Queue: 4 jobs
Job 1
Amino acid sequence: MKWTTLLIALSLALVMSPMVAVAQKGEGQGKPFNATTPPGSNVREKIFNENKERIMNWVQNCEKWMERLRERVNASNMNEDTKLRMQERISTVEQRMEQIKSQVANAKDYDELRSAMKEVSKAWVNTSKEMRKLAYENTIERAKVIIGKLNELADRFESAGLDVTNLRSAIDEASNTLGEIERKIDSGQQVTLQEFKELKLDIEKAFAEAKKLAKEYKPAPDIGIVRAKVDGSFELNGNMVALIKGNGTLNATGDSVANAKGTLAMVLRGNVSAKGEGDFMIVIHGKGTLSMNGTGSYAYKKCVNEKFVTGNFTDSVTITFGC
Amino acid sequence: MRALIFLFLGLTLLILGCAQQGGEQTPKPTPTQTPTPTPTPEQITVSENVSEEIESLEKEFQELEKLLSELDSLENVSFEI
């Protein structure tokens, strides 16, 4: 009998001890941590503090990122309406981040924090989508400007007589990739980061080609450089390499003979005497004169070692270039 | 007689009214012709140094790329506790 009682007592002790342990572990659940609790003595308090700190740091990083995106948008030369729309959307995301921050900050115990995190997790799905969309839109706008500038550089190299085939082809590839991304975004399709990685590779390739040409680009010191846009007519005379792009009629005599009508892009070399009527962009390296009538703008340097002079015209202007 | 007086007074008032109206009449303002604003062509900007321009464009592109990749790291967050 004694042995039986002892056996029962031992069995009960074995069954009860884990239950007591579990009950002790659950103690304090849902209750705020107070000052009487010695720091670090409670594992749950430690986890609570660590997670709170981690999420607050993360929210701060998100806010910093949004601030940088805002700076980028402000500094960009996208049109004012687009800029304003993006700034408003950035403000909405920033307000959501503030809400997330206060939800986390107001959590007083482990359970409240866990429930706040669930709310934050749901809110983050839409917030991150909007942040990505904003970042993509900003990248597209800036990439357009970068590709435009690379095209201008290609024009300049071409008008200096350099072979720009590879650079033009790299720019075209980048432009096509960008166009595809833009088309997808406009039609509400999902754009992946992979597509932006492809764009990155294309633009990097164009940069590499532009760098190669920049090393070769050494204009003679006695020539002048002109870049002009004219909507009207122009007359060009002298010894040069001139790239003429645009829409209209063009007649050239001299070393380069050309008669063209419509959309055109051509390079005239040597002794050039050309007349054009229409909307043109002209880039020249050489010596001579360019007279323009109508409206337009220009940037030129008479000699390579001088600074560019810029201006607009609404009637006529004559530029003499070369030393 | 009374009718004549009334007629006289009426005519006098009519003449005075017309005269006043004529005196107050200001010359019609000539329509001012606002000159049609000529659209100012966009100013051309050309860099003095092509290598520097390429570097600056490259730097700008790298910044954009950095912004995108940082977004990846922000998205890589766990809400599990």
Job 2
Amino acid sequence: MNDLDDIYQELIIDHNRRPRNFGEPAKSTNRAKGHNPLCGDEVEFFIDINENKIINIQFIGIGCAISKGSASMFTEILINKTIKNALQITATFKKMITTHNFTEDLHELDDLSLLSGISSYPARVKCAILSSHTIESAIKNEQNIISTE
Amino acid sequence: MIDSEKIASDFPILKRKINNNNLIYFDNAATSQKPIQVIESITNFYTSTNANIHRGVHTLSMEATNLYDRAKERVAEFINSTDSESIIFTRGTTESINLVAETWGRANLDENSEIVITELEHHSNIVPWQELIKETNSKLKYIPINNDGTLDLSNLDQIINSNTKLVSITHVSNGIGTINNIKNIIKQAKDVGAITLIDAAQSAPHMPIDVNDLECDFLAFSGHKLLAPTGIGVLYGNKKLLEEMPAYQKGGDMILEVTYQKSSWADVPFKFEAGTPNIAGAIGLKSAIEYLMNLSMAEIRNHEIEITEYAYEQMMNINGIEILGPENIDERAGLISFNIPGVHPHDLGTFLDSKGIAIRTGHHCAMPLIKKLGSHSSARASFYIYNTKKEIDKFITEINNSMKYFNHV
């Protein structure tokens, strides 16, 4: 294992302690629930989409620093993005955390690129992937609950 | 008295460094480590005695058969059964329970039958019965738990009644460590004529087991949690019941006579052991049990009481900690399931791993139990013969450090 700080970057811990855009909004056009049955983590995203653009995104849930921190960071990064752009970001994110020594341009991921260290921790990849799966499901307005298993 | 540091020197893996720290292994409820004596017994078998059992007339086969049969005698002695023919080797506790469900269960349950288990069970003592009641149209009932994770026995005489055909309960909860007073429950079950099965996966490695005294019909446990290799486990059964039961898997080794038209079964216990068994596993199990009996199971329990109390007292001083399960050490095995404020169990698990400490995090294969207790997951430290107070001290220090790490401003 590498240094603990590789996985728990300062900013992730901060997002875990003080999650941004946390809570259920009065209005949302899209929503989806995600669940990791193996560890009990749960997350629900509420997205307000207007003319193919995310005008609000919030979440509720319980989980570890990786799952909660990444959910919080996603809300900051995806707001005001087009749907197409948002789906690109979630796809790149997934590639980053499931590929060891990912070398592609992470510019579009912004702060989320801090989570790249998780690719060295196979036991924790699912913690990070829950949010991106659930956000994709919310954008597509799928009705089923997303599961990491 | 158990000399943990001396015992630890028998376990090669405990010399390993994990992330530049000495390994502190507190995940014994998941599986135990193996002493050199057990490892060598397996190596020696493959190096000098390997052969198939119960059929060869050559020297190696006779030696292997002898070792396998002696392993059964040792297991019988370990749980104070007078008859090694009441010992069936399986892959582990899960297979032992499934064996009972698929043979005795299918043959004896109908739409009027009720199976009683508890809310404390490991998935392996829930799921086989959930499937069996679908096939037999019988019913599954649960003995509920109190908030402290002990069984609520106030309505036991209604839950266990004349419709009850089977009472299958865990001796020790793998999730939160509760030790159940199984003797009383077995007695109540016998009073209504029900069959009893004890899941001893978490008790057999840690305390004396006496099937003669308990008078249970079945008792199941795994080798790998008590120093033996994975893939070998035990089902003890009441001999008379075993003789009445239909066979389990069918094939080689479990037959008496085969013609192209039909077959008849070998005697108990071989009727339940189709195919070449895990011979090396049985020999490893024999060596593991000899190691434990040499230490004395009563002494092992005393050692675990001592370090569990030591850990419990210090953990209670951690601000905001929640410890699941009973407070009284007489009702708690060497296992502490807990949550600390501001640090998710998974984060704690990763943090402690970086310090060389192995614990389990999650729901510990007891999802409904952890939910019932109002948690989504917990961290679990479980102790064994090689664990020391010094290791507990380091564990407590690192829990405190984790709270600083994850809650700093």
Job 3
Amino acid sequence: MTLRTALHEQHVALGGRMVDFAGWQMPLHYSSQIGEHHQVRRAAGMFDVSHMMIVDLEGARCREFLRYLLANDVGERPRPGRATYSCMLNEQGGVIDDLIVYDMGEDGFRMVVNAATRDKDLAWIDLHADFFGVSVRARVDLAMIAVQGPAAREAVLRAVADRVPSLPDLRPFHALAGDGLFVARTGYTGEDGFELILPGEQAAPLWRLLLRAGVKPCGLGARDTLRLEAGLNLYGSDMDETTTPLECGLAWTVAWDPPQREFLGRGALEAQRDIGPPRKLVGLVLEQRGVLRGGQRVICSGVAEEGRVTSGSFSPTLERAIALARLPAAADGACQVEIRGRLLPAVVVEPPFVRKGKSCL
Amino acid sequence: MSNIPDELQYTKSHEWVRHNEDGTVSVGITDHAQDLLGDMVYVELPEPGRQLGAGDECVVVESVKAASDVYSPLSGEVVDVNDAVVDSPELVNQDPYGEGWLFRLQPREDGAGEELLGAGEYQELLESGD
């Protein structure tokens, strides 16, 4: 069975090339995938991300629960509207999923997790929520539209200003709710942008309003090249339960302080931190023509152990192949990537590759 | 609807063949194939002079989505390649039967070819939902 989002008819009407993604029928692209990528870097594009799972958490001990569940810290005190990006770890420090959690003040917390991991995420969250008396509600009734790009703010303001009067004051990495519409200034593209969450039946009218405001529909294909340029990990490719945040470039999301905060996976993570993680996630830029793809072998000079490309593609902004790769910790500087039996030179860089439309190389 | 010129021949693996007046054949990928692959970002062509058998892998085209092999429709010698698509892979999307051609082959006289399809047969193949 494949699931359809509330915007399915819109995608079909716009000529979306529909593919199966984590059990959902989603648009891969509508016209040129590279054109959609540039649209987001230069103006504004929108993505149907309703396949992602929204989970609302409520209960007097909700904050305490999240401070135990997540490697990043939502904080001791309420910070209404504040978004926190975090990994959810197993006891071994492996990444069960990465997610964003919004502090909704007295209303609890709203969490957005990946579509492909929804069942195991829910099982894990439920398992631990019980002890804290926290209610966990998967909001399958809600749709989610991401509007991203330098012109996103103006378009979103035009489309929903009447419903959310304080929207002009919304700061990056914050959210606010009003009139059945939840607006977060977050995204997955390395551009300014918003994620709009609303009841499924209201999604199509908002989608059409945004179209009229000049926002172009973009598919999952462009979403992937945009997040890769922005150096943002994709769960299942760049990290999974066999990697810790320290091995996937996400050490910055682990809140070690305060030291007395016991979160799931902390012990294993501390042990790894103290001896030094054996592998690291880096950016690669291919020096000549070719395309980097997940799974390719990486040979690092002076290091016996091989690395591997975890996700790669052609960067439309840089017009060359880029990738995220997991390499032995000792790897430094130059390496070679095996593409169809040939070893091609690549440079190791620190992601992101592109930020706010500009090359970081 | 995908464009299938009448004057060309086709393979089941979505290459097209044009018989030139000098006895050589030009080869490319069909409009259907480029549409399926999406935005082309890399093309690797064979060396001129290389001897190909019918069905040999001889070109790699990579779109932003995927890499795909292109097979030689006939046996023969590569006499010319289209360097323009190496610099501008998008030509394969924009003009698959024209500026997006890939290579020219001097077919071997005794060489057995793959079974080539006419435009009508190729159309039927697409309609039968490859």
Job 4
Amino acid sequence: MSYKLGYYPGCALEASARDYSLSLERVLKEIDVELVQIKNWHCCGASAAHSTNHKLGMALPYNNLALAQQQGLKELFAPCPFCSRMLITTNYELKNKASLPAEMKSATELDYQPDINIINSVEIFKRFWDRIQPKINKDRLKNLKVACYYGCLLVHPPKILNYDDPEQPVFMDEIVKNLGAQPVDWEFKIECCGGGFTVSNEEAVLELSNKILEDAKENGAQAIIAVCQMCQINLDMRQKEIENKYNVNYQMPIIYLPQLIGLAMGIDPKELGLNLHFVSTEKVTLLESEK
Amino acid sequence: MARIGVFICHCGENISRTVDVVKAAEAAATFRGVVHSVEYKYMCSSPGQNLIKEAIKEKKLTGVVVAACSPKMHEPTFRRACHEAGLNPYFCEISNVREQCSWVHEDKTVGTAKTIDLIRLMVEKTRKNHELQHIKVPITKKALVIGAGIAGIQAALDIADGGQEVILVEKDPSIGGHMAQLSETVPTLDCSQCILTPKMVDASRHENITLYTWSEVIDVKGYMGNFEVTIRKNPRYVKEDVCTGCGLCYQKCPQKKIQGKFDAGVGLRRAIYVPSPQAVPNVPVIDKDHCTKLLKDRCGVCQKVCPTGAIDYEMKEEIITEKIGAIVVATGYDLIPNNFYGEYGQGKYADVIDGLQFERILSASGPTAGEIKRPSDGKIAESVVFIKCVGSRDPAKGIPYCSKICCMYAGKQAMLYKHKVHHGQAYVFYMDIRAGGKGYEEFIQKGIEEEGTTYIRGRVARIFKKGDKLIVRGMDTLSGQKIELAVDLVVLASAMIPNKGVKELYQKLSISYDTYGWVSESHPKLKPIETSVAGIYLAGACQAPKDIPDAVSQASGAASKVLALLSKDELEKEPLVATIDKNICAGCNMCVQACPYQAIELKPIKDRKGNVLRYASEVNHGLCAGCGVCVAVCPSKAPDLAGITEEQIYAEIVSLG
């Protein structure tokens, strides 16, 4: 039976992270989960709004949540960690700061009870694991060693998100293991990739992302699994520059978690957007087609 | 006719700043029964007390109301003054116009009005006071010391030297506590074992000390001077009176790879063991969770090799009850668990250890015989990072308080490391250096200037592994630079927390503890050794993080309190106790269940022939603490509390209109 799930794609998934949204939608279709987008959703403000004006940083997610509630949505899947963090933080602050609900109501002219459950990009697959499991063949990824990269936003700030161990998270590793792949024990699971500095301070991003790639490689990973499109783009798009600058050779595919799940399901790599990456994903896709 | 005097204290400016004391005195003079009303700058001073005494004599006062600070502070002072002037002390009442009025108000009009009200109701109460006499209770001349670390040992020795009997209870197999685990001590670098062991031996040999190791206090009843304590002696499976301490059993035990408490997990012991070669008593104990004989009835090697037949697998726990006059709580501390900071990978990396583990590595009697071998591969650590304030002073993730001793021991450990690995490098990451104490600052400076310890001001953000090195990433906040150090070993100065299971013990003792589980002192400045329960004292780090000299001084202080108490034959007790009117009591048993001091019992009421007619509650005045719970729960108003009768409370309420 089809399961209808509230969906807040966020702006990146409509543009730079098409491969992320393609694979998500394809995998969820495979398990009969229908994504119901919020009508007229808009930017969540991400890091830009809340670092310039706290009220604006709360009002943008509030407005989105209020629209979702008007539409009767009880839960909302937000694959982008920036978005999910802002939505969860807004819920948290509404419950814990007495003056905020009235302020938000006057700013947006919309009512919202902060009880919409926000589901992040890892939780979604734990949630529907009973639908995923019958569709996968564990042998397809049998020899693949991967480094699960959570990034900083999925688990921070722990007091508000209260998700997994904030310093040594394991939830994604568990999913990857259940898919049949081998998660490697590595050190940089939650290390910063440089995030939005990719535009304003490229040098910083190259340095930070290089350390992540280096540690993944040293610990035997053949690919890095990401759930944040910002991480993915820094490690994938900037990888050639990193290799040139530091005179190294990684050729490390940066795969989204739903892409890996899709491969385990035997879905055509192209349908998963694996042909849209900067670094060739053949190491992973060929491994699969060899079988 | 009541003749009451009202005495209003300025408390310097503490009260007079927000209370118009002159106006209050004028108002009080008009109250029914008041014949004298004055104010004075310091009522608790000698001239202030004389004002009260003279007024009692001259004006023939029958009651005194002092409007001043909390009765917790000076009620005894003023009651004594009244007694000296010939007035029964229980005709003296305190109106708390400082904590409950001047300190909590800013507006003088409000403060003055409230002060007048507070005096008015206390005058009404005083009008209905009765003469009360102290209750005398006999004292059991024996002390109990709970915990035999350095504080407990010192307290027990001092009490025993003072000529009183002491029961010393320790839950570990040996006495000595954490101090026995340490290598050398600050600031003189005395060997910890060398200065502690003689005291341990003294404690075990002293004719006035009875030692129960591997034992726990499981129940406490009674009150100051007359506690009844139940102790559980856990089975050692080795007969203490037969064992000669030869050690054959633990040399032959095949279960070799157990991480023991004494070596803090960095060394291994057998299933039958003594914690250390200096253990007191030097009698092994069998670890029932690892001994295959006890678990599966296989092996039995220790019994076969024991030349004196001391091994007894059938041994059962023993329950001992003791009558005790005074108790010293010396239950010590623990460190926060190893996996506390995920970003430091503790628990994941064998070479990230805490301070106590490093003490064992430094110790000549430790698992590496004092060589600085790191736990993962036994390689000599060529470089070590020490991180201070791990968990301490961290309200977000850890505990907000300072663990106090870490600055000194981290500095010491860096110094001792350098003494053992001359070419090695020690780094200390710090927030600031708190080296208050005799010779302490000089010690830290010596470490920096003469021993080459590198101090880096800043926090460590993350520790991770690269090859066989640990990468310590942090910040030098003096130069503003990011720092990455590749080192062999990381030692965390982990936050100190109360020992496991102490809260349950404190509940049995009915003593208060703070939100973290440290024992609360009766007064932070003037009663730092007393707990919230009379006759129970505290010593050492069970109160808060504390170093050895502080713990020892406090232990001697606690011992002197105990000796003073036990020097008397009888105890004078406040007569503010409940009495139950048997004619009203219906015997419903509610007060018996509600009484937190087990002071109430249902007793039969018999006719002349001895037939039981009904039951009624009776209060043991020795046990009663005057808390008033029975008064509150009784549906038929049978109990009443001397000094705070229902009639008096009603009069106070009515006086407010």
